[in-house]
Amino acid sequence: MELMKKPSSKNIFVFSLVLIGVVFGFLLAFFFFPYWKPNMNITAQAEENRTAVLPADALSVAEGLQNAFRAVSEKVLPSVVEINTVSITKQQTPRFNGIPWDFFFGPDSGNDDSSEEREYRSQGLGSGIIVRQDKEAYYVLTNNHVIDGATEIFVVMSNGKEYPAVLVGKDDRKDIAMISFKTTDSWPIAVLGDSDAVKVGDWAIAVGNPLGYMSSVTMGIVSAVGRSGGPANNINDFIQTDASINQGNSGGALVNIRGEVIGINTWIATKNGAGGSMGLGFAIPINNAKRSIDEFISKGAISYGWLGVSLINADRDLVKALGVPEGQRGAFASQVFLDSPADKGGIRAGDFITAVNGKEVKDMNHLTLMVGDLKPGDKAEFVLFRDGVSQKFTITIDERTNDVAADNKKLWPGVFVLPLTAELRNALKLDKNARGLYVAQVYTQTPASVVGLQRNDRIIAVNDKQVNDLPGFYKALREDTGKELWFSFIRGEATLESPKFKR
User: Fold this and answer.
1) Which whole number is the average pLDDT over 157-170?
2) Catalytic residue list contains 180
């Protein structure tokens, strides 16, 4: 049995320090315990909050919305495809056989066979929407700029399957195109909604392949409707959305909360051409493309109605000068093509068109779109203001062709004039008593151009009828439309008279 050792003085000292520390700790706890209690309560409250859940009704609403987005995604994704294109261009390049002398100065033989033709392949990416099926053929709607110039086209489905596709038809005015692919596989057809029913603030869900990230879904709202702009010569009234859209989304679907396609994602507005999403995305309203689907399949092209007028958006001063009621929207027919539907039906230069078939005209682009959607042979009722009075005309629409729409020789009168306001007089440094209507533009090959009118002239008479304002100018034109035309005008300090133009 081992006997216990007697503790040394050093061990006793250490033991004493430990004991004093323990006693001191208990004293601190006793005196400061009331101040620790709130911290314990905060910790308990945090734990309670961590385990808390939303109220049942709020959670139900949130889950319902989440389920709606899930349902939309599941419904739409299989009918939105990725479009991959290959464009092949050929270019002459110098032939280099490795000899520096030949490279810099050419071969001594002097023949012209010093270059060769090479092929360059460039790839493109976009999206498309399956809108029609005919047996094994599936038809995909997309943007014209997605497939324009493509030599090879492929569609890739949401599950990764790839099919070769062919071009059915394309149209650069609406920036839409159709391609098709064949397969015995079954794929859903997108449900097309009614873009005319879209309102600002509606949910907007963009589906496509941004930057190659296949089958992406982004969500936002409809920020605006009836927007103009975008690709050159485009006549769409775009839906604006803040749903994230990037390169590769072009041709994809913009859908509503029901999963119905309301638009075709087409372009984005970026600062200084940066190219990234800034919450300014634009989609072609699906109603603008519905009729085109049948035309692409049956004819491979879109036909447009033609009225035969040249339009501008009139500013407030011009509208007021024409006697149009304040706040009235519409489009100003500054020129009329001779022998066109408008000319034959009674529309004249200077008319302010406000409605077509009972539907209000918003602006120049809107009227162009409305007329373009009319079929050749359709009879349409146009409401317009002339000399401050509302009038109606029934016009039989023709088919628009590039040749007839570009024939300036029939554009009557071929000149656009402005009244001499105080601001314009100051800008031109004219006396306050200066008279006439300022010639702002003369269109080439038109009657006004043929008789010699020039920009900066001031017209004082039309066919010997003195004109002092816009209503008087256009009234004089109406009385002699289709007969003959000449002008009296001031150029510099001289008063001149043009030769007569006879139709």
Assistant:
1) 96
2) no
